[in-house]
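Task: complex structure prediction.
Instruction: return structure tokens for all chains below.
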Amino acid sequence: MTATATAGRSVPPSNRPLNPRRVGVLMFHTFTQLVRMKVFYFMGFFAVILLASNLFNLQSFGQPDMEGMDVLRTIRSWSLGAMTLFSTVLAIVATALLLPKDVEDRTLYTILAKPVPRLDYLTGKLLGVLLLLFSSLFLMDLLMSGVLALRMHDVVNSQLAAAAKANWPADQIAAMRVQTEAQGVTWSLHGAVFAVFLRSAVMASAALLISTFSTSTLFTTIIGFLLYFIGNFQADARHAALGGTGEGTGPLAKAAGLGIAVIFPDFQLFNVIDSVIEGAAFPLSSLGMLTGVTAFYVILHLFVSWLVFSGKEF
Amino acid sequence: MESAVEIRHLVKEFRLPGHKTPLRAVDDVSITIAPGEVYGLIGPNGSGKSTAMKALLGLVAPTAGTCSIFGNDSLKVDSRQEVGFLPENPYFYKHLTGAETLRFYGKLCGLRGPSLEKKVGELLELVDLTGARDRRLGGYSKGMLQRIGLAQALVQEPRLVILDEPTAGVDPIGSRQIRDLIFELKGRGITVFLCSHLLEQVQEVCDRVGIIFRGRMVKEGSLDDLLSIDDQTEVILRNASPELLAKVREAVLADGAAELIRAGKPKTTLERLFLQETLDRKEP
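Output:
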């Protein structure tokens, strides 16, 4: 706890960076701070309403021909869309709030005046946001799975009844059932939710980086959203500028392309979510690759944030 | 003996946008504070007090010079194990209760379990906030915030406590409570480094005082030394008649009814000295 004095010379305990216990304290504190913010409840409420609306037939208004698998597909689409919107907004806004608020309220002084390395402070803050994103997406995934399971049960029952009435052969009924169940709750769907989380994690770390040199929450939020949109289109721009295969382009152009990809995360990589909505499988290898890409961006953003933040004066 | 605080020739310059010449906020300031001492740094607004304190805490990097706490470089995180800091007008996290606040800061310092809970209880009692331990800080008054701030500064039992305007915006009663707490810290042998505008309070609690003006230390020393006026002599008489005052020494000696209690140097007030060294100062 306190330093021990030996022969008139104090020997304080070593406070190495990335102490898991200290980072954990900051992470859970940030999580609590965000949970107690009413804006989060509002967004959670919005997401819950959107998901709960799938229990009714609201999504088929104006589309009377929609039935069977289309209903399940719509639930998946709406749910993943709501999750993407919720997690992206929360990742940017929540992270953008944290640092300027601590500086403004001078709570940062009291934290950094304790034996807390600046890297631990930043890591704890980021992990707190990620914990909040993960928890809320996990809850939304549970809710979506519940709604989908209920809906699939109804759809399968009605399909079986219709097939029996039409005297379909057993193998055809089994094939239809497999096809319908692929639109229900699958591991690929949970993987897609995890991909939503990974994308929001990149956005949160990018917002943290911006907030280390930004002077206001508004600036961080605007630049954060701008980065998100650039990230969604940068792959197309690079493709157009450098050509499809990259053949015929010089090393300088390739390096420039790589530089752009490092500065602006390529969010098109996360668009596998769209194919999962259509019922395609999400292989574990793709999920692993996405996790790797996310880890690269998060660590890169955190490292640059620390470089900026460690030299910052308050 | 190792000093609690050692600031050596501290210079801090800030680059201002649109200005070629940097602003020198602190100019060659040296301060040494012995363990157990209560040191007061006083100066007008913008004189460099807070910047000097921030340099000591590693919140700003010195342009030149060094700062150390119990022999440990202030720029190293380890030096902060020994320090408790109460910033000016602290707000803390409004979503936390008083007890949660102390728990949070205690955990950051490596405390946990029953010892942390015991410490939280002790500190809340020390700052007279036991009744408000489960109330969120959003509902605390200014004085209560200052006191919970002081409690968080003490959570890891630091040997040095730095207080930046601890009574700013606090009513006289709250101000008195904080003064009593400083006396309590002094009684426990904790070194206190404080800056305040309340000169009377500084005079009351501090052993030594430094006056900083336009970034420079213009006067420093023990209160007794600083407040003594060298070219005057104070005579305190008991039962002395007005006539007697005209011929003090001879009359006292000659007059058997009067008693010479003490002869020494009369004192000015800290406030008068402060104004003389700052506003009335002719040269920078």
